[in-house]
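Private note to self, pasted from the team thread so I don't lose it. Backbone tokens:
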């Protein structure tokens, strides 16, 4: 679209090269072939002035690749390599060929500049993943095999042992999330292998029977061995098409596919390659303003998003060191899409349908404007606060005797996001009650009820009228904001107190700074007394 003369561009097809054009789009495969019939040799070596290699971490970085012959043939041209995931192994090096990066642009920059979609992460813990599963002695699976007795952990599930209840829990959680947000959010579920993707599809069909009754394409599997699913790939990528809505896959959609309206990425496979992780996350980073695609969500069942905290994820784009071998071949995963691979147990896989599995923790991480992940979640909130205050009594003692703003700041440093908690719970209760309710299960008291309790006290009744007038204004501030706002005498600089003449006249009206401190101390004591 950036070229005024569209007729000067051509896509190379059928291995035919016409010298009448200025810009050629081609796959390596369209230019190579038998050494005596290599299509690129239809042009003289000096024909091109510029060659741009997209995804240059792939074959072009491999000295032994037949594709390198194309670049060597047109060595007189300027070669520019572009990739989001530069690669350095013993045999493959972007830097050896293209040199050091001359320009880098990080995901954080793209989000901050408004070119890429920000994301939030829901990291979900299933008991068997977090605690491990040890089958009882002599356990027989649904195939009649005796299950090897050892500890099975997250990396084993769906590769060496299948727990049907775990699959159903994942499908249920995905469905619940879409029900709470938008059931037509395009969703990609990354599974361990093609067989896992098929079981996940069935579990999701069962959980979404109502939607599948409207259109059977609501949930589909798109893998290399599924002809029917692959035929729906273009529809899935179409911004204007509702269906398919939820797609299960293993490797096929991790790269090279532009699903602009993908709003949810589900990770139910182990990911140890930073390259692969970046590629998968990239499926959701497209912004589509005219269709209200402003951000995307990641549901992580395997702790893959721990890679976000790795400096390599959003550091300077120099090299991603992943050791020997191809980035799509991980020791913990099948070698390729469509080849389940063989291991020391000859690929034996157990399957049990009488073992329970349940979600026991959920952690929500929000990517903030400063690039920091802000933790906010319900299940783990108690643990965060307990790290500072093991019991409610510990918390209340500090609340009554210490600077409350400092308490809030300390808890926020631990990862508690009070702004989102207040958004979730509401402004009618103060932070004391939000903490008591969220961390210790104690019923909250409304701010208005606490104020009424003070007004009914003998202390308030005996206040002089001019002092009571100021206290009533302080209650209004507390009702709108929070208690620590009225503990600071600077509160009298608010516009509300201009009727008294401003800061100094209001302090004098209350009897001076010490009188104010004593007054607030008593009010706070009555506010929170049992």
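Design output:
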């Amino acid at each position: 679209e950036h070229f005024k003369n569209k007729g000067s561009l051509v896509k190379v097809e059928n291995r035919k090269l016409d010298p009448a054009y200025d810009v050629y789009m081609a796959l390596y495969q369209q230019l190579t072939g038998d050494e005596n019939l290599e299509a690129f040799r239809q042009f003289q070596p000096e024909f091109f002035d510029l060659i741009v290699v997209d995804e240059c971490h792939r074959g072009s970085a491999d000295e032994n690749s037949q594709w390198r012959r194309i670049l060597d043939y047109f060595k007189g041209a300027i070669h520019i390599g572009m990739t989001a995931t530069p690669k350095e192994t013993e045999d493959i090096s972007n830097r050896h060929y293209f040199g050091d990066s001359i320009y880098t642009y990080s995901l954080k920059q793209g989000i901050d500049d408004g070119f890429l979609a920000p994301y939030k992460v829901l990291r979900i813990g299933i008991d068997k993943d977090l605690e491990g599963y040890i089958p009882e002695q002599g356990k027989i699976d649904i195939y009649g095999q005796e299950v090897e007795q050892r500890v099975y952990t997250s990396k084993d599930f769906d590769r060496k042992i299948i727990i049907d209840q775990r699959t159903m829990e994942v499908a249920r959680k995905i469905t619940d999330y879409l029900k709470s947000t938008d059931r037509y959010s395009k969703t990609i579920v990354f599974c361990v292998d093609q067989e896992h993707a098929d079981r996940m599809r069935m579990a999701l069909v069962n959980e979404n029977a109502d939607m599948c009754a409207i259109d059977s394409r609501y949930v589909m599997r798109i893998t290399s061995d599924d002809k029917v699913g692959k035929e729906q790939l273009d529809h899935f990528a179409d911004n204007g098409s509702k269906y398919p809505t939820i797609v299960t896959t293993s490797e096929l959609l991790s790269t090279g596919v532009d699903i602009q309206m993908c709003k949810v990425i589900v990770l139910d496979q182990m990911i140890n390659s930073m390259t692969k992780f970046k590629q998968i996350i990239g499926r959701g980073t497209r912004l589509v303003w005219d269709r209200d695609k402003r951000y995307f969500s990641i549901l992580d069942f395997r702790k893959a998003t721990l890679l976000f905290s790795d400096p390599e994820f959003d550091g300077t784009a120099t090299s991603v060191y992943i050791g020997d071998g191809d980035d799509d071949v991980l020791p913990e995963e099948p070698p390729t899409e469509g080849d389940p691979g063989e291991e020391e147990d000859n690929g034996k896989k157990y399957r049990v349908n009488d073992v329970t599995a349940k979600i026991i923790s959920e952690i929500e991480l929000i990517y903030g404007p400063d690039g920091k992940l802000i933790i906010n979640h319900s299940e783990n909130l108690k643990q965060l606060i307990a790290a500072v205050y093991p019991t409610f009594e510990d918390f209340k003692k500090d609340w009554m005797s210490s600077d409350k703003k400092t308490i809030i700041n300390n808890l926020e440093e631990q990862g508690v996001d009070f702004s989102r908690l207040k958004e979730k719970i509401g402004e009618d209760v103060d932070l004391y009650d939000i903490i008591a309710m969220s961390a210790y299960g104690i019923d909250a008291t409304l701010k208005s009820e606490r104020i009424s309790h003070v007004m009914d006290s003998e202390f308030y009744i005996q206040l002089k009228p001019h002092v009571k007038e100021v206290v009533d204004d302080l209650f209004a501030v507390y009702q709108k904001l929070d208690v620590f706002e009225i503990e600071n005498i600077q509160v009298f600089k608010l516009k509300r107190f201009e009727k008294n003449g401003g800061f100094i006249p209001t302090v004098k009206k209350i009897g001076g700074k010490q009188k104010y401190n004593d007054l607030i101390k008593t009010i706070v004591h009555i506010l929170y007394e049992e």
